Amino acid sequence: MKDDEPQLIERYTPNERSNHWITAISFILLALSGLAMFHPAMSWLYAVLGGGQWTRILHPFIGIVMFVSFLLLALRFWHHNYLDKDDIQWMKQMGDVLNNREDRLPEIGRYNAGQKLLFFVMVVCLVLLLLSGIVIWRRYFSIYFSIEIIRLSSLVHAIAAFVLMCGIIVHIYAALWVKGSIGAMTRGYVTWGWARKHHPRWFRESIK
Length: 208
Ligand code: HEM
Hints:
Low-confidence stretches: none
Helix content: 55-70%
Mean pLDDT: 96
CATH architecture: Up-down Bundle
Strand content: under 5%
Number of domains: 1
Order of helices and strands: EHHHHHHHEHH
Distance between the termini: 20 Å
Number of helices: 9
Shape: elongated
CATH topology: Fumarate Reductase Cytochrome B subunit
Bound molecules: protoporphyrin IX containing FE
Structural class: mainly alpha
Radius of gyration: 20 Å
């Protein structure tokens, strides 16, 4: 290694990264095709999956792909997302978080409290989307449910999708905002500087 090259730490293995991007690509296809079905003003988005009929056929199957892929991702990362008392303190110091005064915050481990909370928002939304999605999957399952349950499930499906989309917008914004994070999920590595600045406790533990 040359002297001027930064030292790197592995943050995500190739398997974790493929798992994440399969989830992310399915999410984008589902969000766009779901919006097309949600309101006529967005029906031009039917083109994403090849028209109205293909959208109705493919959307639920892609939903299953996203759920299974997310389930594997969530099982891999579950133990990194337990909230502790430092996380409560981090949330109380939101002013310091937003103004980049990271030196005043409690020492952050692998993920900060915002990432952990968002993780559990994703888990709840994905479970609700799966359960309500099965009820409104006309082709195979809707015949087993009453119209009231189907209507309620459509509402739950739309609300969970809305919350998840807002959550993922925040997730992408944060990934772009914290320079070096995208590289963690594309190449798998972060610099020592990135780790020390944003996740000092994880940095200390990783270089032991
Ligand atoms: C579509 C564009 C997306 C981008 C650009 C993106 C980017 C990233 C990046 C850069 C990280 C690493 C953050 C870090 O190590 O500190 C990450 C982690 C993660 N992402 Fe995404 N992501 C996207 C979509 C999604 C979707 C759709 C899901 C799930 C529904 C998701 C779930 C996760 C999870 C679970 C983690 C690990 C964080 C944790 O366990 O708390 N991502 N993402």
